[in-house]
Amino acid sequence: MPCPTFPLASVRASYPALADGHAYLDGAAGTQTPQSVIDAISAAYRTGIGNVGGAFPASHRSDAIVAGCRAAVADLVGGHPDGVILGPNMTTLTYRLARAIAGPGDEVVLSRLDHDANVRPWTQIGATVRWAEVDPVTGELPVEQYADLIGARTRLVAVTAASNILGTRPDVPAIAELAHRAGALMYVDGVHATPHGPVDMRALGADFYATSAYKWSGPHIGAVVADPGLLETLGPDKLASSPDTVPERFETGTAAFADLAGVTAAVDHLAAMVPGEGTRRERLLASMSAAEEHELELFGALIEGLETLPHVTVYGKPARRTATAYFNVSGRTPREVAEHLAGLGVNVWNGHNYAWELTGALGIRDSGGAVRAGLVHYNDRSDVDRLLDGVARLR
User: Is the pTM of this model over 0.70?
Assistant: First the structure.
């Protein structure tokens, strides 16, 4: 039975791409976009936009688009608009911030659970790296180890809010408490977590919270959110002629202004999935809570179905997770499984999915990784049933 508080039919109807009849279980790599986001991007181009800071109306429209996008992202994650750094993607922004935050003489604590975008930028700045290990059976990231990893020289702890292949939601607030007690900063990768439920970066203890709009129904835009006062203490590499204000000094080059309009529309779409009243932030919390309940209800059927198939190996059994399954089929490569399912109109991903350290810890990176099926708010029970039927045929 569908979640009674989540209007699935109307949500699905707002996504034109779903009309092709495919089961889009590839959401962990990027979601489809609703009509409202498509309309917002095309409207920005139709109306006319210019670069920011000009004296003419088209430039003023771009100024308003940027300000509106910062406010929308701040509402989504519980941050401050003046601390929203915008860029082409989370990876680019993390590389940029890593060089501004830490360097030789510092220590950074990383985790094997993370997507490589929250690993490699920190390993390449000359800092000393200390590793938090994953339990390869459960997929959990034990908090206890951080007490030994974090010390006086720790400048930063980088950790994901949810694994992009296992769905594991580690205890980020507990890790943040240990980090802050030692005077270290917390850089939280929220790319996979943000689409799957309400986000409160302050409750997480995140000094920096990274997210990507294309994972939650928006265009390919990334954002990192921090306290504006913290950003004032950092000096990133920048052009001498570019603004030195916060957050603009972290943003290189000219922004994709029409896409930023699409980001705001995506946040508004998420806030309106479940009808309600209140501020946009309040509506987002209610709507995303209902979406999470819907996803996890579907996921219960998905994971139970996979685990009952004798020719399927499912990786990870975390206590708290997003609706993301990672599995292999006996006698078939992950690519063969993905191609078989594609032939049945079911979209899934295969490989390491940039979880480089984690697939190494699981012992499957060099053999092709596994198959990933990820549910998002627009998926329904028929998507799940089609996946399970397709995998069952490979027995």
Answer: yes
* 389's tokens: 């039927």
Cα 272 to Cα 267: distance, rounded to the nearest angstrom: 9
Q: How many domains does the chain have?
A: 2
Same domain, 246 and 300: no
pLDDT in tens, the chain (395 residues): 446 689 999 999 999 999 999 999 999 999 999 999 999 999 999 999 999 999 999 999 999 999 999 999 999 999 999 999 999 999 999 999 999 999 999 999 999 999 999 999 999 999 999 999 999 999 999 999 999 999 999 999 999 999 999 999 999 999 999 999 999 999 999 999 999 999 999 999 999 999 999 999 999 999 999 999 999 999 999 999 999 999 999 999 999 999 999 999 999 999 999 999 999 999 999 999 999 999 999 999 999 999 999 999 999 999 999 999 999 999 999 999 999 999 999 999 999 999 999 999 999 999 999 999 999 999 999 999 999 999 999 99
| Whole-angstrom Cα Rg for the chain | 21
Q: Could you tell me the CATH number of the domain that includes residue 379?
A: 3.90.1150.10
Asked if residue 259 belongs to a domain, the reply is yes
Query: Which residues span the domain enclosing 297?
Result: 8-34+289-392
Q: Quick one: which of 356, 353, 359 has its CA closest to 123?
A: 356
